[in-house]
Each structure stands twice: as structure tokens, then as C-alpha cells.
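pinned: reference chain
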Amino acid sequence: MKQLLIMALIAFVLPFSLNAQEDAGGISTEMLKDMHDRYTKSNSVALQNAIRNNSIKDLAKNRYSNGSQDTYFSNRVATKGITNQQKSGRCWLFTGLNVLRPMVIEKYNLNEFEFSQSYLFFYDQLEKANLFLEGIIDTRDKPMDDRKVDWLLKNPIGDGGQWTGLVDLVEKYGAIPADVMPESYQADNTAMMSKLLRMKLREDALFLRRMAANGDKIKAIERKKVEMLSEIYRILALSLGEPIQQFQWRYKDADGKTSEMKSYTPQSFYKEFVGIDLNDFVMFMNDPSREYNKLYEIEYDRHRVDGRNWKYINLDISQIKDFAKASILDNQAMYFSCDVGKQLDSKNGYLDLANYDYSSLMGVNFGMDKKQRIQTYASGSSHGMTLVAVDLLNDKPNKWLLENSWGKSGFNGHLIMTDDWFNEYMFRLVIHKKYISAEVLKMLEMKPIMLPPWDPMFSPEL
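pinned: its C-alpha cells
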């Protein structure tokens, strides 16, 4: 009876407003009736009640997989400890430093070690502020609705990033232990600080553009920029603390022996305790929406004005996995980024294409492949983690292990991903050149194809 009343009301009231829309591509009375008929034929009251009163994700969970995850890995990089980025978008920074951390632990026989994320984060934000203001100066003669100006103003600064940014920061500023410059509340909770930085930088951008419009010389504009950066420095220093320039430090190894106390600068500490050339690492992307075996570069995808844009080789997924396997077998962790929110069972720390079946629940097919998801912005790199293990069956990957930076959540601070999930949602992987074939390394000599900053692949890990 209720459904009959609804249809009678639709038939009487809607024609006056809807039929006029038919020629303009609007929704007509007939279209609504057809939708209603299709819906009533295909649904049950029980399904409606379930979906309206429960979490869609909980209902779509494939219960058959509960408790069935195999947590054994045939090959694993030796790691110790779990880090926690808290409520911040600094996964790229934690991930990059977690690639280096096992080297220090193994080299000095330590039970634990962690780099200071706050130290490099301070300079990351200062350098990004300078990059933004220089972008504003470079585009000072362009109209406000120019696409690049519009993009800059929408993206003045953020706490996300990627591997190339870490390389540029470490090369310029070195690195220090976590206990020398520990995390502050604002480092762990970046939202408000980031909001203030964005507000101030947008205000500064308008001022610099007014100076240019009034005919001020470039030297005067650059001097004003330096004054503006001093205010950014103040916000960062109050929020994170000023970066340490020199410190004394010693450590106790796993055998209980204490080293001598020594004085370090951040640069000398990195050189002694890590000492590897980060430029020997190569970034790969698996983007089926673009041609493979080509070198790409993304404009403005860097952290320093005098740094380098992110360059990557777009490669078939099978080759990337072969290089990754070789790295793990040699005890070398890797920087890895992916679309972590897709098919994630966060409670168990499990990434599997079969975790959730939304198509069956809704009776609607969700059928885009990886290429289509990228082209429509339905999927992209959203989170960075450290790839530390692979489980090989007949010498082929069955599943992989990621060291996360969300504390001890998931699988003891890690995420397990199936090899099929790797294929669909892995985007970036950074691998040392010694594990890469000469043929692929030669691609680095190509002239890179420059992509604009609004490209779908410009998506900093958070």
C-alpha cells in the first residue's frame, strides 16, 4: 500500500516539473518510474534494513577470510622497532628514514634506533614555503586564474611528500637521532600548524603579486620574500623547536657496551652513521595509463627550490617486483607507496583484493581496472611505508610485508599485502641501483617527459 501511494504521488505531482526537463537531459517521470521498478524488483527488505542501519564496510567484509592469514615470510629484512607518525601526514619522512634505520642498527649492533623526524620536518616546511613563494614570484605576471597560479594558491604547503624530498633534505641538512630533537605536540598533530602556514603564505603571495603589479623590482620582491620566510621560521620554531646545529651523543649496543661521547653536526652524524649516497636509489612507478619504459618528471614535485623534481621510470609491475625481491634477499628495505585505503582490513593489517565485496552487497558492479582508476582520480598514491619482506612460493611472490608508521596497529605495526593487491594498488617503489638491470638503468639517461603539477601522479604520501 505504501509503495502504491508513493507511485501515485510521483505520477500526479512530478510531471509538471520533470517533463519539461526531458529535452534538456533531465530526469523525467518515466525515468524515475523505471528506476523505481528496477529497484523494487532487485531488492529485499532485509537488505535495505541491513545497509541503512549498519556500516557498509562491515557488511561487505568477506567473513571467510577471518583468521586465515598466513603471517610467515620466507625472506625478511632485519628490522627492529616500530615508529608512529601520529596525527600527521609525514609518512614519507618516517618511511624514508625507516629505510636507513636498519643500516644503523646492523652497523652498530643496536637494540633500537630512530632518527629525528622533527629535525628534518622543520627544514621541509621552511624549504616548501620558499618553493611556494618563489613559484609566486615566477608567475607574478600571470593572471590569478592562470592554471599554475591557481594550483600554487590551492597547494601552498603541506606535510606530505615523497622520497626525492627526503634525499634533498638529508643531503643539505644531514640527520640526527630522535632523542636529540624529539617530537613536539605540533609535530605529532600537524593540522593547526599547517592551517596557519597556508593562511600566511597565501597572504604573502597576494602581497608579492601586488608588489610586482606596482612595478617593484625583482630584488625588492626577493628581499620581501626573505622577510616573509622569517615569519614562517618563527611559526616553525615555536611549534617544533629550532633545529639542533651541534650536539654530543653516544649509544649503548646490544651487548651493553657504551660508546664514547662525541660531538657531531647533523651532516657529520649522517656521514658517520649512514654514509650512503641516496642518489644511488631509483624511483619506479607502475602507471598503466602511460607508456612503460619511459622516464617522467613532475614539475614542482620537490621540496627545495634548488632541489630536484621527482623523476621516475614507469615500468611493468613484474620487473619492479623482480628488483624488489632482489633487494629483500640482500637485506635492503625499500621506500614503497600505495593506495593504502583500498581493500584494507585495518584491524588485522591485511591488504587483499577479496577483503570487501561491495559489488555483491550493492548489486552494482565496480569494475574499473588500475589504468581507469588512475585516469579518473579514483586511485593514487596515498601513503608511504617500508617494504621489508616477501614470501616466495616456487620462487614467485605470494605476499609482501610493509613496515608501517602507525604505531603497533595492524599486524604488529605492519601490513601484509597479497601479490595481487601489490599489482593493483602499488604506485611507487624506490630501489638501490645495484639491484636493477643495466637495461633499465639506461632509461635514466633519457630526456624526461615533463608532467604538470596537477597531474594525477602528483599526490604526496601522507
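why pinned: The chain has a mean pLDDT of 94. The CA atoms of residues 88 and 250 lie 29 Å apart.
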